[in-house]
Design brief:
Belongs to the extended synaptotagmin family. It comes from Erythrocercus mccallii. GO terms for molecular function: calcium ion binding; calcium-dependent phospholipid binding; phosphatidylcholine binding; phosphatidylethanolamine binding; phosphatidylinositol binding. With 356 residues, the chain is an alpha+beta fold. It folds into 2 domains: 1-174; 181-306 and 315-321, C2 domain (Immunoglobulin-like, Sandwich). It is built from 7 helices and 17 strands. It has helices at 2-24, 130-134, 144-154, 171-175, 272-278, 311-320, 349-355; strands spanning 31-37, 44-50, 60-78, 83-100, 112-117, 122-128, 161-164, 181-191, 198-199, 204-205, 210-216, 219-222, 233-242, 249-256, 263-271, 280-286, 294-302. The strands form 4 sheets. Strands 1, 2, 3, 4, 5, 6 and 7 form a 7-stranded antiparallel sheet that branches. It has a 4-stranded antiparallel sheet with strand order 13-8-17-16, covered by helices on one side. The chain has a 4-stranded antiparallel sheet with strand order 12-11-14-15. The chain is globular.
Length: 356
Amino acid sequence: MWPFICQFIEKLFRETIEPAVRGANNHLSTFSFTKIDIGHQPLRINGVKVYTENVDKRQIILDLQISFVGNCEIDLEIKRYFCRAGVKSIQIHGTMRVILEPLIGDMPLIGALSLFFLRKPLLEINWTGLTNLLDVPGLNGLSDTIILDIISNYLVLPNRITVPLVSEVQIAQLRFPIPKGVLRIHFIEAQDLEGKDTYLKGIVKGKSDPYGIIRVGNQIFQSKVIKENLNPKWNEVYEALVYEHPGQELEIELFDEDPDKDDFLGSLIIDLIEVEKERLLDEWFTLDEVSKGKLHLKLEWLTLMPTADNLDKVLTSIRADKDQANDGLSSALLILYLDSARNLPVSYILMDTILS
């Protein structure tokens, strides 16, 4: 299958990624791929998990532990600035979800295929000419780390690649499904964190300036920094859409803010299936990967209702909690799917910019 997968990847680069890059920044309007060769080494599937519970009978859900270490040749250029760069090798490791739906009674038995990562994969890229690329106006504030994060997040929910296998499939419903629910995260406080700041060349240990990074898929929130406190109180609230369960997780990392590189204070991963079952969790969680520290969270699972019958009750409830979030708590969800456009006026902005 690998040669055909490579053909699909090249098509994805040229028809999806290239236009997206051009539209992201005026300085990238002449961006293009001049060569795309993914190489002959196929990706490895190190493990497969198939879900049999809480799954619609017209779908099959697979989680693939994938690993790809390949020498490739991807060349790109930005003609406007006579800039060229490329990629010599790529490594990617992570859990890819594959959904086969809908199952149908005729060949090929599967209506469409959807691919995405449940959480940000480990991605390493060996660049050539990256310095030239970062000299382009509008990109000089970026770094290779930020670029990797942008690419990784493009692969993670709610972004997905959907390939129809029969013409009758409603592709929009598969590519942009309604979320399974909303996770309301009360990021309250922590206790007994490690003191990372030191004085007198490390002889005296001080406190930390802790903050948290909260992730659900590619939705990322960052808390405020609490200065010089090993028992910080944040009392912040975040709301994240959950598109897939089982499988999606709440990921939290705590850091100590420093002028150069922030120190790690612990992490936490919570399976959202447990939150959905309980509907409300209010607990102290022991931090992983560190010797000490606890984090106090209150997690609410909110189900989407098809009608507005309970809206008044919800509004009354969130008014009582209106001070908990900077922009207020949500009472409803608006989903807008932009399908297509026709007869748009011709734009001459690009030509004017080039001629000027």
